[in-house]
Amino acid sequence: MKKSTKRLFAAVLAAASLLALTACGGKTEEPKTDDSAQTEQPAESSGSKELSVYTAFPESEVIYYFNKFEEETGIKVNYMTYDTNESLYTKLKTGGSSYDIIIPSDYMAGRLIDEGLVQKIDYTNIPNYSYIDEAYKNTAYDPDNAYSVPYTWGTVGVIYNKKYVDEADTGSWDLLWNEKYSGKILMFDNNRDAFAIAESRLGYSLNTTDEAALKNCAESLKEQKPLVQQYVMDQIFDKMTREEAWIAPYYAGDYLTMVADNPDLGFFFPKEGFNMYIDCFMIPTSAEHKAEAEAYINYLLTPEVCGQNLEFLGYSASETAAKDYMDPEVSSNDIAYPSAETLSNSEAFLYLPTETNQLMDSLWLEVKTGNSSNSTVLIISAIIIIVAIVAILVLVSMKKKKKKAQRGKSAEK
């Protein structure tokens, strides 16, 4: 994906900040204790006491909650950030950097497994894995739970301003194609999420590889384009809270953050279907501190750590036990934690074949830059005009030379 600048939860950062409980303005109160939580010492140490975490979550939002992990293990956690799943993939593929923990989204996790860029996890070092709900195990991208540990999950829906949008128009992806709200509609600025909306609206799977289906989706997105104010990602926060735009597709967890700033914002899950995603911990094959990485993952799965961290971030926890450490208004929220019936209408992204990704890239470029057939006509027309101009210039030049030659002959006489 997600892509995109999807706010991948990399809630690892909450604990990554164990290095120094100074200064980030996050919550600093003592957490509730959970006597059942287990913080394991690394089974084996590679000698170093530093751990490198590569995450998409920005430094400004790191939460300095706990120092227990570093105090008990002596392991210092360093972290670096990336902006998209694709950036993460490029870093791992090209090498040159060593990371001990990464946090990709589901479809990218599948690609990393297929290409041998991540290694199997030793669950004897992660006893807190037992807290993970069965619903997030045995996924399509990791059916045997060999390479990934699910941590956060979320959904995509439609955010709208209740002051300006008629409730009768809500409930469907069609709202994003409603001419009544032309100029007030925002759209995802990445092809996977944008095509997923068109796919749902037209009744296709979010993982279709059918060329005709993808071309139909591209045509639908072209039809929508004149109504779109702007293609955005994180810019949606300011535009929706300030009411510069009234309608936007986005992640449910981010809606919960936005509605705190503007209570007039509403949210719905489109009836045609929507994307559900999982962000997970993985350990690259190049990791130098595997045992320490597993100890750190185990710490992050401690219900009190997971619960307070994800309550702050606004995303959903993969373990029910974490809800005991959340505000009841959060843990019982039907947007953060939709019912099984609602989730039955969702679909997760899978990693698509290279040919499909290339086709989608090409079609998305057409959507963003204009109709391809019109572009072709313009190019052909431009070529014809240039050829005509060159021909005229050549004829004019030949006539001048002919006249000059005739004058020369007259002068000789």
Distance between the termini: 82 Å
Radius of gyration: 27 Å
Overall pLDDT score: 82
Shape type: globular
Topology order in helix (H) and strand (E) letters: HEHEHEHEEHHEHEHEEHHEHHEHH
The overall strand count is 11
Q: Biggest sheet, in brief?
A: 6 strands, mixed
Number of helices: 14
How much strand content do the residues show? 5-15%
What's the multimeric state?
single chain
Classify the helix fraction into a percent range. Answer: 25-40%
Structural class: alpha/beta
Q: Poorly predicted ranges (pLDDT <50, ≥5 residues)? A: 1-37, 57-66, 372-376
Could you give a short description of this structure?
With 413 residues, the protein is of the alpha/beta class. It has helices spanning 12-16, 68-73, 85-94, 106-114, 191-202, 211-224, 236-241, 252-261, 290-300, 303-313, 328-331, 340-343, 354-369, 372-412, and strands at 50-55, 76-81, 101-102, 149-161, 185-188, 228-232, 247-251, 265-268, 274-281, 316-317, 346-347. The termini are far apart.
